[in-house]
Amino acid sequence: MPGSVERVTDATTTYVLVDGENIDWALGSILDRKPEPGERPRWKQLVEHTRNRWDQPVRALFFLNGTNHVPMTFVQALMAMDYRPVLLSGAADEKVVDIGIQRTLRAIAERGGDVLLASHDADFAADMAALAQQGRRIGIVGFPELVSHELRDIPSIEIVDLESDAGSFDIRLPRVRVVPLSEFDPADYL
């Protein structure tokens, strides 16, 4: 079939790549302030959701900028939740987390696996599109209303809502977004 993408058959792992800085920025923009600890995502829930959604093992990597400070308590918590923290450092003007994720996406392209990327950033569009062209299952997890158009426009990409699809929050976020009529509950607005 012209234009169709054949699925890679050796993909047995889903890689969850979390752009910690980007998710923190997005959450801060929704709350209009820095999030409190109880307002942050439950990252273990994202791993479970991904495992159930795509029905294959998950390898979760959480990327953090460790140039000036390493939040060791958070790093230990990530490890307890089956994440592998990726602490990167570099020059002040380098986007170390973005560069690290881009290199990881390219490495996955050479070895196999599917990718669920927790970010809204257009910087990853070319690498995610390359994975889609290989027939990989790819997705973006975050807040759909903030996902870049470059990511959104990739054929076959799944958009996963970190709050409503993955159930990664213990609170209801004050989001302004388009709600499908089938999901509309007036009580949410009263």
How would you summarize the topology of this molecule?
Blueprint: E1 14-19, H1 20-31, H2 43-54, E2 58-65, H3 72-80, E3 83-88, H4 96-111, E4 114-118, H5 125-133, E5 138-142, H6 149-152, E6 158-161
Parallel strand pairs: 1-2, 1-4, 2-3, 4-5, 5-6
Helix pairs in contact: 4-5
| Helix and strand composition category | alpha/beta
Unreliable segments of 5+ consecutive residues: 1-11
Q: In CATH terms, what is the fold-level topology?
A: Rossmann fold
- Name of the top-level CATH class: Alpha Beta
Query: Helicity, in percent?
Result: 25-40%
**Distance between the terminal alpha carbons, to the nearest Å?**
49 Å
* Largest β sheet strand count, sense and barrel closure: 6 strands, parallel
Can you count the beta strands? Answer: 6
Radius of gyration: 17 Å
Whole-number average pLDDT? Answer: 90
The order of strands across the largest sheet is 3-2-1-4-5-6
SS summary, helix count: 6
| CATH homologous superfamily designation | 5'-nuclease
Beta content comes to 15-25%
Order of helices and strands: EHHEHEHEHEHE
* CATH architecture descriptor text: 3-Layer(aba) Sandwich
Describe this structure in words.
This protein is of the alpha/beta class and 190 residues long. The protein has a single domain (15-172), classed as 5'-nuclease (Rossmann fold). It is 33% helix and 18% strand. The protein has 6 helices and 6 strands. The protein has helices at residues 20-31, 43-54, 72-80, 96-111, 125-133, 149-152; strands at residues 14-19, 58-65, 83-88, 114-118, 138-142, 158-161. The chain has a 6-stranded parallel β-sheet with strand order 3-2-1-4-5-6, sandwiched between helices. Helix 4 runs parallel beside helix 5. The longest helix is centred in the middle third of the chain and has 16 residues, at 96-111. It starts with 13 loop residues before the first strand and ends in a 29-residue tail after the last strand.
